[in-house]
Fold this sequence. Notes:
Layout: E1 2-3, H1 10-18, E2 31-32, E3 37-38, H2 42-49, H3 52-60, H4 84-93, E4 99-103, H5 123-131, H6 148-153, H7 155-166, H8 177-187, E5 191-196, H9 206-211, E6 219-221, H10 240-250, E7 261-265, E8 286-291, H11 301-304, H12 309-313, E9 323-326, E10 329-333, H13 340-346, E11 348-353, H14 356-365, H15 367-372
Parallel strand pairs: 1-11, 4-5, 4-7, 5-6, 7-8, 8-11
Antiparallel strand pairs: 2-3, 9-10
Amino acid sequence: MTSAATTTTAKHDNQSTQDQGESAQSNPPFWCSVCNLDLQSQASLEEHCQGRKHRKRSLRQGLPVTNTTKRPPFTSSLPQIDDEDELFEGLATGRYRNVVILTGAGVSTAAGIPDYRSTPHGLFARFQRQFGTRFPQVHNHPEYLLTRSFYNAHTEFWQREIWPLARTDLDGIMPTNTHKFCAWLEQQDILKRIYTQNVDGLHLHPTLLQQVPTLEQKVIECHGSLPQGNLVLYEDLLPEIFEEACDQDFGAAAATAPVDLLMVFGTSLQVAPFCAVPNLAPKGCTRVLVNRNLEECLENDFSRRPPSWGEAAGFGGLSISSTVQIGSRKSVSKRPQWTGKEGRKKWSQLLVEDDCDDFCQRFFAHAACQERGYSLRAFEDGD
């Protein structure tokens, strides 16, 4: 697993909480003051500190949460991508001819657009600060403000308060390196599709379409577009073109030119049915996941317990099933399959914990790109 993240020990993570207050000095040596538990041993304490309850309580108290999860290396009957170098070489030399890209909010943060789930500047955190008093359920489920139920019940308020807030950061935004990388794929005639959760319209920015006009035919804005005014809310059905494109890209019609590379950028894959799309990839396909925090992507509420209200509501109505029908595929798992036997048996995979733009910059700096004159300069400022 390629990683740009620095990890520290769970002992250090917990020690930062134990130092709070003089009373902590009288606690047992393996005491967790976040959860008020005596874990009896260092090993138990370290395991406890990686638990979801401990981490969530730490976040609520404004305490640092570090990632100490160590996962075993992949073993597979399929040839695995060893590192970025092998992937970059394959992309630059034309090994991959049918590439599908999935993007989330993490590809647009470099453009100055906040993501949904980060604190304290994410959109959901804004919702909690500004509207939590008036609508108490927003404290636990900030996505409630983006449901069709809420819109129908508070239409005037939504149009006056929520819509302008959602559009606040769109003025003057420009595509990031990741958006330009996606356009480059189309320029090379190897892009099959872009599926994006984002509603900022940056994949179809005029500066990109000026360079690559055919890009417009390849982008599926699964949740609509704020610039176009056709936002898809929680509980809404996704546009028909989403399932039509999935059938074209992953169904029987794709048998003659199957997807050979699927790349996921900047999404934690928490919301259905989008979270199931990576699992449509055909056997033998190479799958790549790039995210600042991989741990967030390796589980979702469909994989660990009955989903919470926010994820269950999803797009397309309430659902607690761990599978979903997408187009002609009647049962597609919503559970992440980046680890475990499902992923190892079916796909060649590479997981990269890093910023999406940094990943794309490294690609264009790779020797195979330099030798062929590939660069982002053609997309700078629409030149």
